[in-house]
Amino acid sequence: MKEICDEGLVFPDRYVSWPDVDDAFWHRAVESAVGQVQVNTGLFRDGLYPAPASLDQRYPAIGNTEWTSSFWTGMLWLSYELSGRSPFREAALAQIADFKRRLDRRIAVETHDLGFLYTLSCVAAWRVTGDEKARRTALDAANLLMGRYYERAGIIQAWGNLDDPNQRGRIIIDCAMNLPLLFWATEQTGDPRYREAAARHLSAANEHLLREDGSSYHTYHFDTKNGTGLRGSTAQGSSDSSCWARGQAWGIYGLSLGFRYLRNPELLEVASRLAHYFLNRTPEDWVCYWDLSFTHGSEERDSSAAAIAACGLLELACHLPAADRRRRQYENAAANIGASLASKYAAQGEKGANGLLKHAVYSKPANEGVDESCVWGDYFYLELLARLQLSWKPYW
Ligand code: GLY
After folding, report:
1. What structural domains and CATH numbers belong to the chain?
2. Residue 1 confidence (pLDDT) above 70
3. Does ligand 1 come within 6 angstroms of the Cβ of 273?
4. Whether residue 326 has its Cβ less than 6 Å from ligand 1
């Protein structure tokens, strides 16, 4: 594996304390977030889901056709676990048939995001309730995801049809979060092929997507015939050579989850270096800009990247030995991010807003969902609250 430098934490004092908030603060944050999910159950039901990003702070309702549908289902599962209220469970269970239909009819499934889609809908359903139909649907999704794996190159293509010359052999850092579906499929079936594909993809990602300074490319192109790495590029970052904040956050969390399954200590060390690069570029209020080349000024924040990174930091921390001082630092950083999100970024339904978190960015280069709510940001904010409040077992 490539040598990646560790910047260390630039202002270590910043990471020595938990935020100055009490239990009632977290309780109010959970009540408010779950309350918004409750309101949204009236809008997003019967085959309708929030669009990836809000428009003027309100999510349009769309069919189950985006890479993001399952973040809504995941929020229903989290709300059920956080509140114990059974209508959330019933609403989430009702969506399993819709995810099965999407898979059977092959609706917008030419994407590695089958991992997000079927982990937060069907694996979560199986983990929380033991639902057998959900388990079988998730295994079917894992099989379809395996169809995107190039054995010779050891990579999983991110986007589009495998014959598309612009997308063939292109991987993206986000994929690390799609791999738990494959690890889970090996656990369920005993068939090692899923796990091998995921492990080889992670190793190719470490080799090519991660730069020596601890930052990451968003995407990387390979020659699928022989596995030769060709070049890094971006789709949503500020430039090919910059570090897109959400990509870095997906990397922190995805590699830490990879460790959960593979127990390869190098994955933890690389995740830690990504984390330091990320944290060192986090402004005073703990919420990053949409690209880590910005550390101050008027560019937009991406609250969704902050929420993902915080969940990743907690995943990373729980695998470090108690004596490792980084463990406490990452826990404190995650809680500070959570406290900042809850006090300054959480939407309160003002002017009809129906997201949980304001000030996220979907794609600045495409001018899409800029300074809006993004549905994955809402999901990871709720997951962060669950991680901070419950002894929550990951769906991943
Ligand atoms: N995985 C796509 C995104 O984060 O926008």
Report:
1. 12-389 (1.50.10.10)
2. no
3. no
4. no
